[in-house]
UniProtKB/TrEMBL annotation:
PPR repeat placement: 19-54
Classification via Gene3D superfamilies: Tetratricopeptide repeat domain
Molecular functions (GO terms): RNA binding
Entry protein name: Pentatricopeptide repeat-containing protein, mitochondrial
């Protein structure tokens, strides 16, 4: 898809109306379009500027982005942050996250 149009639509959503689904859509959109660094930047923006916590979909998008952009070190760091818990969510890591890490290595 056209990420510029997606970003325009995303930016039209008032900040307080943005939810985890809208953020995940942007992270995954960038990741699927080979724009891993932009996917990571969007993830970091969500973490820094909102009270939202990443869910398993968010984390998989970030790991996918790191994997396909060759950002192995960054992927490892994000995975370790998840192991240590974002908001102590015990269900954050799923088998697909481990599979993505194996693929990354």
């Amino acid at each position: 898809g056209n990420m510029e149009d997606s970003l325009l639509a995303f930016n039209k959503i008032q900040e307080q109306e943005r939810n985890i689904v809208s953020w995940n859509s942007m992270v995954w959109g960038y990741a699927h379009n080979g724009r891993g660094e932009e996917a990571i930047a969007m993830f970091e923006k969500m973490i820094q500027e909102t009270n939202l916590k990443p869910n398993s979909v968010t984390l998989l998008g970030v790991l996918f982005a790191c994997n396909h952009a060759g950002l192995i070190r960054e992927g490892y760091l994000y995975f370790n942050k998840a192991v240590n818990g974002y908001d102590d969510d015990p269900n954050l890591l799923q088998p697909e996250h481990y599979a993505c890490m194996v693929d990354m290595l």
